[in-house]
Specification:
Length: about 450
C-alpha cells in the first residue's frame, strides 16, 4: 500500500466510517421507531398517505437540486485536495441560491399542475397533506446540498448528525407529545411536524457548515466556474433522478394501482430494508470524496485498493443483516402492526437486492466522482425505463410482490452494467468477488 493511502486508510477512513456508521445506526433506529409508532397511531390508511407524500417530496427535492448536491460532493473534495480555496468559496457561495430558486420553482410548478388538473382531490389523503409536502421540497433540497458539501469537506458529523439524528428526534418528540395529550393524529399533523423539524435542522446545518469550512476559504476572493459546475451537475442530476426513479417507482405505482393500505405495507418493507443498506451508506459516506481526491492526484492503484477494502466493509455486515431480515422478517414487520406481516415476501426480495447492491461495490460513486457521470446517467436512464416497464407489468398481476421483483431485477441490471464500465474505463474492480481475490487487508 502506498504511503499516500496508508494513513488515510488506517486512520481517517476508519474514523470517518465509524462516525458515519454510528450516526446511521442512531438515525435509522430513531427513524424506524418513529415509523413504527406512526403506523400504530395513524393506522394503515393515514400512514400510507404520510409515506406517499414523503416519497413525492423527496422526488421533487431531488429534481429541484439539478445535480448540484452530487456535484458539491465532487467539487468540494476536489478543491480541498488541490487547495483551490477561491473556487471552493465561489462554489459554496453560489450553489445554495441556485438550489433555493430552482426548488421554489419546481414546487410551484408541481402545485400548479395538481390544482390545474384537479389532482389534489384524486390523490390519497387530504389535499393539505400534499400542500405541506410541496413546502417541504425547498427545505429538503437545501438540506441535501448542505449534507453533500459537509461530506466533501470531510465533516461527516455535520453532514449526518442534524439530519439523521436531530430531525427524527424532533418529529418523535412532537408526535409523542400530541399522542400523550390524547389528541388524534393525522397525516396532516405529522407532516406539519416534519416540516417544522426540517426547517430547524436546516438552519442548524447551515450554521455548522459555516463554522467547519476551511479557514483558508476566507483568505481568498471567490472565483466561479459556473459553466463547468453546470456541465458536471446536469448529468449528475439525471443520475440522481434516475436512481430515485428506480428506487421510488414501485411505491408510487403501488399507490396508483393499489390503495393507501398497500402503500403503508410496502413502505414498511422498504424502510426495514434500509436497515441493511445503511452499512453501505455509512462506508461510502466517508470514502466517496476520496475517490475524487485520489483520481485527481492520479493514484489509480490506491483507488483500487481503497475500493477493494470498502466492499468488504459493506458486504459482510449487509449479509448478516439480510439473513436476519429473511429469517425474522414477519416478526420485524409485526412491530408496525399485525397486518404489516403481509409484506414479508416483498421485504425478502428487496433485502436480497440490497445484498447484491453491496456486493457490486461503490461503482456508481466511482464513476460519478472520476468524470464518468455521463455514462452513469445513461445506464441509470435505461434502467429506469426497464424498471417502469417491469412495475407496470408486474404490479397489476402480483401486487406488492411484483413491485419488489421489478425493483430487484433493475438493481441487478444497473449494478452489473456500471461494474463493467468501471472495469473498462477506470481499470477498477469493485465487487466482493474481486475483493476476495485481492485481499487488501493482507497488504502492509
Amino acid at each position: 500500500m502506498s504511503e499516500a493511502l496508508r494513513p488515510f486508510a488506517l486512520s481517517s477512513l476508519r474514523r470517518g466510517a465509524a462516525i458515519a456508521l454510528m450516526l446511521q445506526v442512531v438515525g435509522l433506529g430513531l427513524s424506524y421507531v418513529l415509523n413504527i409508532l406512526l403506523a400504530r397511531w395513524l393506522g394503515t390508511s393515514e400512514y400510507g398517505t404520510y409515506a406517499y407524500v414523503m416519497v413525492w417530496a423527496g422526488i421533487l427535492a431531488t429534481l429541484a437540486g439539478f445535480g448540484v448536491p452530487e456535484a458539491a460532493l465532487r467539487f468540494t473534495a476536489q478543491y480541498r485536495a488541490t487547495a483551490e480555496w477561491a473556487l471552493l468559496r465561489g462554489f459554496m457561495r453560489r450553489q445554495p441560491w441556485l438550489i433555493l430558486g430552482s426548488s421554489v420553482v419546481v414546487a410551484g410548478l408541481a402545485g400548479a399542475a395538481l390544482v390545474g388538473l384537479g389532482g389534489l382531490d384524486r390523490l390519497p389523503g387530504s389535499p393539505r397533506a400534499f400542500q405541506i409536502g410541496l413546502v417541504l421540497v425547498p427545505v429538503t433540497a437545501l438540506a441535501n446540498l448542505a449534507a453533500s458539501t459537509s461530506r466533501g469537506l470531510g465533516r461527516i458529523g455535520v453532514a449526518y448528525g442534524p439530519a439523521q439524528v436531530g430531525r427524527p428526534l424532533l418529529v418523535l418528540a412532537g408526535v409523542a407529545s400530541v399522542a400523550a395529550a390524547g389528541r388524534a393524529l393525522s397525516s396532516d399533523i405529522v407532516l406539519a411536524m416534519v416540516l417544522v423539524s426540517a426547517v430547524v435542522v436546516l438552519v442548524f446545518q447551515l450554521v455548522l457548515l459555516a463554522k467547519v469550512a476551511p479557514a483558508e476559504v476566507q483568505k481568498y476572493g471567490a472565483r466561479y466556474r459556473s459553466q463547468e459546475w453546470l456541465r458536471v451537475a446536469l448529468p449528475l442530476c439525471l443520475t440522481s433522478s434516475f436512481m430515485l426513479f428506480i428506487q421510488r417507482t414501485d411505491i408510487v405505482l403501488v399507490g396508483i394501482y393499489l390503495n393507501p393500505d398497500d402503500v403503508a405495507l410496502y413502505s414498511a418493507a422498504s424502510k426495514t430494508v434500509a436497515l441493511v443498506a445503511f452499512f453501505r451508506f455509512a462506508v461510502n459516506a466517508r470514502a466517496a470524496p476520496e475517490f475524487a481526491a485520489l483520481w485527481a492526484r492520479g493514484k489509480a492503484a490506491d483507488l483500487q485498493r481503497l475500493t477493494s477494502t470498502l466492499v468488504h466493509w459493506s458486504f459482510w455486515p449487509s449479509l448478516a443483516g439480510v439473513l436476519v431480515i429473511v429469517v425474522f422478517g414477519r416478526e420485524i414487520l409485526g412491530l408496525f402492526g399485525p397486518e404489516f406481516e403481509a409484506a414479508h415476501t416483498p421485504l425478502a426480495i428487496l433485502a436480497l437486492a440490497q445484498l447484491f447492491n453491496a456486493g457490486a461495490g461503490p461503482v456508481g460513486s466511482l464513476l460519478n466522482l472520476t468524470g464518468h457521470q455521463d455514462r452513469t446517467a445513461f445506464v441509470l436512464g435505461c434502467s429506469a425505463v426497464v424498471n417502469l416497464v417491469l412495475n407496470l407489468s408486474l404490479i397489476p398481476s402480483f401486487g406488492m410482490t411484483g413491485a419488489a421483483l421489478a425493483t430487484a431485477t433493475t438493481t441487478v441490471i444497473w449494478n452489473v452494467w456500471l461494474h463493467a464500465l468501471a472495469v473498462h474505463h477506470l481499470k477498477v474492480r469493485g465487487s466482493i468477488a474481486a475483493g476476495l481475490r485481492s485481499r487488501p487487508w493482507a497488504r502492509r
